[in-house]
Amino acid sequence: MPFRLNIMLCTGTGCVSNGAFPLLEAFEKEIKKHELHGEVAVIPTGCNGFCAVGPLVVVQPDEIFYQRLRIEDVPFLVQEHFLKGRPVKKFMYTPPETKEPIPVMSDIPFFGKQMLIALRNRGLIDPENIDEYIARDGYKGFTKAITTMTPKQVIDEVKASGLRGRGGGGFPTGLKWEVAFNTQSDEKFIIINCDEGDPGAFMDRSIVESDPHSVIEGVLIGAYALGVKQVYIYVRMEYPLALKRFYRALEHATEYGLLGKNILGKGMDLEIEVHRGAGAFICGEETALIRSIQGFVGEAQAKYIYPAEKGLNGKPTIINNVETWANIPQIILRGAKWFASIGTRGKNGDGGSTGTKVFSLVGKVHNTGLVEVPMGITLREIIYDIGGGIKNNKKFKSVQTGGPSGGFLPESLLDLPVDFDELLKVGSMMGSGGMVVTDEDNCMVDMARYFLDFVQSESCGKCIPCREGTKRMLDILERITFGQGTEEDLVKLEELSKLIVESSLCALGGTAPNPVLTTMKYFREEYEAHVKNKKCPAHTCKPLITYTIDGKICVEKGHGCGVCRKNCPQSAIAGELKKEHRIDPAKCDKCGICYDVCKFDAIYVD
Amino acid sequence: MITLKIDGIEVQVPEETTVLKAAEKVGVWIPTMCHNDLFEPYAVCRLCSVEVVRGKRSRVVTACNYPVSEGIEVLTDSENIRWIRKFLMELILSRWPNVKVVKEMAEKLNVGKPRYESLEKDEAEDACILCGQCVNVCREVVQANVIGFSYRGIKREVVLPLGEQSDKCIVCGACALVCPTGHIKMVIEDYKGKKPEFTLGPKTSIYVPTMQGIPRVPVIDAESCIHFKTGGCEVCAKVCEPHAVNYDMKDEIVEIDVGQILLSTGYDIFDASKMTQFGYGRLNDVYSSLEFEMMLSSMGPTSGKVLTKDGKEPRSIGIVHCVGSRDTNHHPYCSRVCCMYALKFAHLVCDRTDAEIYQFYIDMRAFGKGYEEFYVRILDEGVKVIRGKVAEVSEVTSSGEYKNQLIIRCEDTLAGKILEVPVDMVILCNAIEPRKDIDAVRRLFSISKSPDGFFLERHPKLDPTSTMSDGIYIAGCAQGPKDIPDTVAQASSAAARILSYISKGEVEIDPVRAWIDDKYCAGCRICNNLCPYTAIDFIEEKKISQINDVLCKGCGTCVAACPASAITGKGFSDAQIVAELEGLLAI
Amino acid sequence: MEFEPRIIAFFCNWCTYTGADLAGVSRLKSPANIRVIRTMCSGRVDPTFILKAFELGADGILIGGCHPGDCHYSEGNYKALRRVHLLRKMLQSFGIDEKRLRLEWISASEGDVYQHVATEFTAQIRSLGPLNWKQRFEQKEPKEQLIAV
Predict the structure, then answer these.
(1) What is the CATH number of domain A5-107?
(2) Do A492 and B115 touch (CB under 8 A)?
(3) Which chain A residues are closer than 8 Å to B49 by Cβ?
(4) Which domains does chain C have, with CATH numbers?
(5) Is B530 close to C79, i.e. CB distance below 8 A?
(6) What is the domain class of A130-341 according to CATH?
(7) Superfamily of B275-433 according to CATH
(8) I need a surface site. Which of A68, A189, A402, C126 has the fewest CB within 10 A?
(9) Which of A471, A453, A473, A451 is nearest to A463 (CA)?
(10) Position A347 pLDDT exceeds 80
(11) Confidence (pTM)
């Protein structure tokens, strides 16, 4: 029965933690109260992407976008919009610069510049309902492949699309498949890599949560092309909602005869087994992931022979991440040519980056969230047009792409197109799509230290350069942020970085020094300030900053109000009313409370 | 075959060879600290990094796991590689500055004092350097999977599951064997088991049971072999070029039909730990004669060198005769061979060391041909012979001149003095005693044993090689202690006896047989069940019993049991026995 | 003249006979009162032999066999044991002290055991005195004989 209105309520993890489920209950209660339940349906969807303003709903078919809803707002919204047909402006998204509410979702700049392939069903369907997926051309790509194409044609199509692995390495997917296709074996495997370990990245989780069937369909096409009967999906334990939805999707697909024995009567068999990872960053690396599935400690294996030839149990194994798989059905359905027309082209026709890429845009931008953009879009467009620029009118400093082992890019590179090879050239990488924006308040040395600390504690510790080398780098960076660095340390950092990149066993080590290398390259003056002047320009490294009270302002403007003295937890501030106050540097532990409480800006940081 | 160049040297190797192996072939040294041919390359130390040049492209790879391919050129000593190796070594050295293998490798790679201080520095000389060899050998070779890595990054450690020794650990010691730093040690806790027989060190799982045995082939001890515990290892099969290792062989019982049997089952040696005064098994450097024989053997644990447990050459040795023999508490008989081998020991020790040798004897029994002359020669060599039974061997615990030595206390009965002789090593001449299972064996063959416990011959003077059972012969120490010439003589005699029967082609049987007189047999069948040889059959047609002459051994049990007196024992008939009785009682 | 017991011994060929032989070879002195009859096995000893021996004037009877489990014929010694048990009961009814019949396991190596048993048994019979079984029948009238029995 068609409904007059469909309330698409985002139940992605971000919105759920902001109270999406109680909101859902409130909507249902209110709709029932007004006896609208025959006309208005509330549908919980996967992640909408605009996580910064959750919990949010989109009212279809008019695409009216409501944000930051609270339970107490529901009765009013239902009465005004659903009953009386008057969209409520005060719940709509209002860009900070124009102050004019934007009612329709696609008019919001955050959505406007996006192009959805992997996420094309986000927010439009109930992820726990296979019929809704099918209604949006779901499983059509697979049906096309199995009924009209040979396995070889499927592989050629993927190859022609120019699709490159979305997990980080950017290896051409079609080529990988071809290797496995050409390797003779009685058994081949497919592994779906959903071990998204980058801090602040949630592309794969969001896809599985909002559109699990797209992954299953992609895998079905791959399994058909490669003759695979057994598929594993490696999901992080930290993704309970994704797991639940994926299990539900597996159930439905099996019920519909899309999994199991004799699929679609074509004699194809396929089983998908869920393997839950225990949360190790290294397990996102192919060989470590295979070890983990086999029941061993997840550590990278020395490889000069690729898993596509010799992987799980020594059999050819195709490992692609969730986003890659989600792209496959669209490539088959709409053709490689269409896909290849999006994005950039390499110089000689090969290389380049086609299609779209999902990024999780986080950090100091207005609109944090999940965005899917065509390849070739510039960083500036992502940060300013989609992200809405830097928060609090601060100055942009850098953007880190590619997760913890990606590089930091400065403002001068903002017009760089998003492309696997272009990013590599400037010392960063595409990675799985993390994008962290920093502003002037972020100390680049401290950022480098933070990410190196992450890499060091997540390194499997197997090979010497990664285990020992990153630890020495971390020691040096810690020294620098404590103001004990020397100029020789900078040389050492560069030297160690070179060694680790050259001699590490796996890509984790090979890319681990990227944050250091890029920050040293683009923000060298910050390092020098730390080392030579023992100052932190961003005022982040506590041992290097001092809080001082400008006596003149204190007396003249504030009349020695003494608020700072009363609030100082260390009792480091001395002074009397109407007289100048002073901070005792020996007692001050640089908590910054005085700075925050001073109404007269008499306290400055140096 | 694949052709490649290593440092300009062209080499041909089979496909799937690693660069490391190829380099070995041409004698190019590539350093490595984690590689071991026992398992798949682990590639963690990265010291084996080499540069592989293909056309214009060059790439740094690890030699231990990089498979060769046609036309590549490998550079093992380029500037970049030297830099990588030295740098890596510096990192390793800065973390484990005192580990021997690390220091050695650092020296080879010309690495001096590291420029980097490690906060995780481990000063121990036997620190674990995380090379992973133990983990890999346990996983891939032993397949017991009881050692693993724990924690990530710099905190990585080699651990046992849950920090405890798993009951899946078969205590094979492979991990300790491959550990390059000695971090893993084998500790024998509360070892209460019996000392392995005749050995001085741990027995390997593959050994040749008897060096002189035929065929002289090694066997696998399934009880200690790793393969039979976990299904893994198979290292012996991998290294055996003729592929002669067979794990499917099973112990089997073979039945062979024979007419005559010669028992030469040998002897055991007296367990000297029963005589606590000698301290065997309690004191270091108190050896049994067979253990010392092992030590003297060039294939023994010390390759024939006479060494104490500390690995030093002894300054003096005491040889104690008659341990357990000529002793009413243990074996009253003389073991016959000890005097002579004790003299032989003295001779060999004189030959190989400068040690002073003391012999403590009751009587010097040098009775054979040339034996007395040997005794005289030994005396000339300066061996001190002391007539007197040793009372005690004890350890010097106090300090002083004889610290950590053994003291032999005895009475010199010729000089009439009590002696206390300090020695570094004591050799006990254990008595020869019957095999532990001699009773089971003798019952199997229906033969007896003499009071000393050895097999009993048919007649001590007239028939010393045959037994009461026809066709069963005995020779060697199974019959009683004897030396090699006596054994050879007795064995030859037994063999001759056996051959004489074989050449005869037929066997005479004793005429002592039972016989049933058909006339008197009532067919009661009492005798049928009595016969231990089932020699009596009941003839259905005649309704009488009949005795099979070949099967009957003439024991006469049936004769005595026949209620009709129908059975007669030839040579021992009722009449004969009664006549004997009458004769005996006539007077 | 002092009473010299006449003792008949049935010794099995393989154990006790050889054992007695060993005693001789070993120069172990044993009483001459024992008069040995060799049988192949103690199982050959027919109870009638024992009665016959008493009848013929024996004062004691010693049967020697192999130790249990050692019988050359597997189990002849067990048969002997069974018979001796029954015979002892019968001897009582004949008025013969059961101590006059003794069964001993003596192996071929036990010369000393033989010596010990022979000496002890002879001394025992000596203390029991002569049996004179036959004479007892001969001296008395049939009726008295019956009473005696």
Answers:
(1) 3.40.30.10
(2) yes
(3) 502-503
(4) 7-139 (3.40.50)
(5) yes
(6) alpha beta
(7) FAD/NAD(P)-binding domain (3.50.50.60)
(8) A68
(9) A471
(10) no
(11) 0.69
Residue spans of alpha helices (H) in A70-202: 74-77, 109-112, 130-135, 140-148, 151-161, 173-182
**Average confidence (pLDDT) per 10 residues, chain B, 587 residues:** 90 91 92 90 91 90 91 92 93 92 93 84 90 91 88 89 80 86 75 41 69 81 83 85 89 91 94 92 90 83 82 91 94 94 94 93 92 94 93 80 82 92 94 93 84 87 86 94 94 94 84 88 88 86 88 85 88 89 86
Residues of chain A in contact with residue B87, where contact means CB-CB under 8 angstroms, are 495, 499
Structure tokens at A54: 């959750």
Alpha helices in C30-140 (DSSP H): 47-55, 76-93, 111-128, 133-139
What residues have CB less than 8 Å from B575, skipping those under 6 apart? none
Yes or no: say if B296 and B306 are a contact pair by the CB < 8 Å rule. yes
Query: Which top CATH class is A444-533?
Result: mainly alpha
Q: What fold is seen in the domain B514-586?
A: Alpha-Beta Plaits (3.30.70)
- What pLDDT band is residue A154 in, cutting at 50, 70 and 90? very high
B462 contacts on C by Cβ (under 8 Å):
none
Q: Does B556 touch chain C (CB under 8 A)?
A: yes
What ipTM is given for this predicted complex? 0.86
Mean pLDDT value across residues A495-506: 92
Are B130 and A461 within 8 A, CB to CB? yes
Per-domain residue ranges for chain B? 2-77, 275-433, 438-504, 514-586
- b/e per residue, A89-113, with b = 16+ CB within 10 A? eebbbebeeeeebbbebeebbbbee
Query: Contact B247/B225 with Cβ under 8 angstroms?
Result: no
d(CA C49, CA C36): 13
DSSP C8: E
pLDDT, residue C1, reads 65
Using DSSP's 3-state secondary structure scheme, residue A263 falls into strand
The closest CB to that of B61, out of A304, A460, A468, belongs to: A304
The answer to whether C39 contacts B577, with C-beta atoms less than 8 Å apart, is yes
* Pick from B456, B532, B555: CB nearest C44: B555
Q: Do strands B73-75 and B2-6 pair parallel, antiparallel, or not at all (unpaired)?
A: parallel
Interface subset of A 448-477, CB within 8 angstroms of B: 456-465, 467-472, 475
A360-395 CB burial, b ≥16 within 10 A, e <16: bbbbbbbbbbbbbbbbbbbbbbbbbbbbbbbbeeee
Q: At what angle do helices A470-481 and A444-458 cross, to 10 degrees?
A: 150
Q: Which long-range contacts (CB under 8 A, 24 or more apart) does A485-488 make?
A: A485/A530, A485/A531, A486/A531, A487/A531, A487/A532
Burial B376-405 (b: 16+ CB within 10 A, else e): eebeeeebebbbbebbebbeeeeeeeeeeb
* B459: DSSP letter: B
Give the 3-state DSSP-derived string for A375-410, with helices as H, strands as E and coil as C. CCCEHHHHHHHHCCCEHHHCCEEEEEECHHHCCEEE
> Closest Cα to residue B156, out of A202, A280, C95, C8?
A280
Q: Which CATH number fits domain A546-605: 3.90.1310.10, 3.30.70.20, 3.40.220.10, 3.10.129.10?
A: 3.30.70.20
Q: Mark whether A and B touch (3+ CB pairs within 8 Å).
A: yes
Q: Which residues from A are below 8 Å from B95, CB to CB?
A: 468
Buried b (16+ CB within 10 A) or exposed e, A288-313: bbbbbbeeebbbbbbbeebbbbebbe
Say how far apart CA C110 and CA C114 lie, in whole Å. Answer: 6
User: How is chain A split into domains, by residue range?
Assistant: 5-107, 130-341, 356-439, 444-533, 546-605
Q: Give the residue-averaged pLDDT of A90-98.
A: 84
Q: Would you say domain A356-439 falls under CATH 3.40.30.10?
A: no
Domain covering B2-77 in this structure, CATH number: 3.10.20.740
Q: What is the pLDDT of residue A334?
A: 92
